[in-house]
Amino acid sequence: MCECGSKQGRAKQGCALCNPQPWKEHGLTKEEYGKIRELMERDPNYLELALFGVMWSEHCSYKNSKAQLQKFPTKGSQIVQGPGENAGVVRLDAEKKLCAAFKMESHNHPSAVEPYQGAATGVGGIIRDIFAMGARPVASLDSLRFGSLEDPRTKGLFRGVVAGVGGYGNCIGIPTVGGETTFHPSYRGNPLVNAMCVGLVEEDKIFKGQATGVGNVVMVVGARTGRDGIKGASFASEELSDSDPDKRPNVQVGDPFMEKLLLEASLEVLEAGLVVGLQDLGAAGLTSSGAEMAGRAGSGVTIDLEKVPMRELGMEPWEIMLSESQERMLMVVEPSKAEKISTVFEKWDLAAAIIGEVTGDGRFTIRRGKEVLASVPAELLTDKAPVNLRPASEPAYFRALKKADLSQLRDYGDWTGLLKKLLSSPNVASKRWVYEQYDSTVGTNTVVRPGSDATVLRLPGSKKGMALAADCNSRYVYLDPWRGGAIAVAEAARNVAASGAKPLAITNCLNFGNPEKPEIYWQFVQATDGMAEACKAFSTPVTGGNVSFYNEYDGSAIYPTPTIGMVGVLENVEDRVSSDFKVPGDLVFLVGKTLEELGASEAHFLLTSKDEGEVPVLDFQREKNLYAFLTEAAEKKLLTSAHDCAEGGLAVTLAESAVQGNLGVSLDWTDDVSPAAALFGESQSRAVVSVSPNKRETVEALLKKHRFPYLYLGKTGGEIFSIRYNGEAVIDCSLEELSRLWSETIGEIMK
């Protein structure tokens, strides 16, 4: 029996005697609880406190990041919808009124404790964000981070996540067209699963998640509500530890076949003009969707829990409101059109029920029949969430790691052996084992498939194409957060430009450790400042994204990982360029300048297991000049291939293009840097291009026009990969051996 006299045999919900610190159960602080009491001018009841707990969590409120995110540029002539909606929208073809809706989000914590369902429901959630805008999803990408593949636990997480991404996307019929996969010990206990989705929509058919029109009804459509995913938003705002198998009930369970039905039914009622507002039921379920729709419109929303379609008996009100059961949407509809919507969803074998209405009182009210269970001004849950300016301090490692002994790489000497080691290391090796589990061509619009710098899709009814890329080098961000954040944007734009497309805009997924630790918050501030400056320099505004804090395992943080999702446009999809060498006898050029930069490189880490040294310099103007050259050269059909120089340096870039095209090279050039820097340094603003001999003069004239340095390296052809540098043979091996090492490593490890 409870001390308060309750006969429940357990602590009574909302009882001050049983729960002297009621805020703790909901992930709130004592100070936040005090602010809630002040704003409401009374004590919140248990359900109201549960609403605040999820809505004021970092996952929903961005309370520790909002002030910093305001530094991002969000406007531009190409931007149709910036941050604040289910997804951002960028204009692709003004004449056809064709736009891309796109967004990236994380599902890190769920994937750490239940990799298959965590990854699958991450994909499902981001897909719903896209069709909530009225867009038909046409492509998915993923950015994945794991610990070392030598660790059996990592192998299990890796296998489960990849299966979850593929299983959901393949079943729903949306191609998974690209992304990235990286391995590093910092992600051992806390993998990162970032999912991006892109959809197409006509500009005058974009929908928003707003609860407008007093008297309009609120409908929940799709799956019925159960207990899966309860308090998932709060779970995502905590550090992980060895006790987390107990948190498996927080992980949602996905049904891709039901999502396919929900997608088609939703687009049908949108096309018929039956819907006023539409919102995905994602994190925090009915709570976030209802409160956010009311908050955006400045209206109120009332929900009657007796009318919510359920698949489990005996659920408490707070469970219903916080459930994150998948494949559900919230719609605001004119009363006269509700029956038509129900008819459409019934045709698709889905539930559709009126559960409330839009009011003019500005309150988010939860009822059970006539009984009012909770009533909170909607703005208190959304706009009045705390905004924290956390203390930030430079970590001790930052300056210490800049002083690095790079002699082991500089003096290595066996450059052929080092190239082989790099190509057979999981970070550099082909990710074919991953993307071959995904259907990348369903829909028949994928014209450059996974494995190239960027994926390119044909736009239906238009001559234009769309290029997509996802990138981040977290080692750079760890060693120099400002420069690393800027380089993440630059590399994503460089990959898009290498495909022949003009970079347009970004979404992002900002993965960091615990922001309450000053060193972690310093990483976050520095990295996002660097991103903001790069986005301004490249005219690629931010349309939205996601912040994922508390990515720590047993107190150890992941490397800071601000993942960038970039969208670009080709004026003519036939001008697309891929990274593989194609024609024997083509001329190979290095476009860009190599500096004596060995720090923070993949090669140095491979030899020493140390992340240290200066991160390569980034020159914004030089980057812009490179993008201009690559896109103009593609438009003029001057390039046979293009491949940006990134992890592993020039030697790896050349080897990847050769292996992908099954075409050897014979190269011979001189430069003023060491062989180590020439072959394996990671200087920025560089790309390898191959050119037909009869186009050499035109290409060189274009490079001079853009004031861009370059080197002629040699020719493609044969079955040998051969490099001479400054008059000496430095690499000489068979293309067949390089191909085997690069292509088969991850598959062999995962057997």
Written overview of the protein:
It is a single chain. With 751 residues, the protein is α+β, with helices and mostly antiparallel strands. Among the domains are: 23-56 and 208-381, PurM-like C-terminal domain (Phosphoribosyl-aminoimidazole Synthetase, Chain A, domain 2, Alpha-Beta Complex); 418-442 and 578-751, Alpha-Beta Complex (Phosphoribosyl-aminoimidazole Synthetase, Chain A, domain 2), CATH 3.90.650.10. The protein is built from 26 helices and 28 strands. The strands form five sheets. It has a seven-stranded mixed sheet with strand order 8-10-7-11-9-12-13. Strands 23-25-22-26-24-27-28 form a seven-stranded mixed sheet, sandwiched between helices. The longest helix is centred in the N-terminal third of the chain and has 21 residues, at 152-172. Residues 1-11 have low confidence and may be disordered.
Kindly state the percentage of residues in helix: 25-40%
Computed Rg = 26 Å
- CATH H-level superfamily title of the domain at 23-56 and 208-381: PurM-like C-terminal domain
| Multimeric status of the protein | single chain
H/I helix tally: 26
Structural class estimated from helices and strands: alpha+beta
**Estimated share of beta-strand residues:** 15-25%
Instruction: Report low-confidence residues grouped into runs of 5 or more.
Output: 1-11
**Could you say which overall geometry the principal axes of the C-alpha atoms support?**
globular
Gross CATH architecture of the domain at 23-56 and 208-381: Alpha-Beta Complex
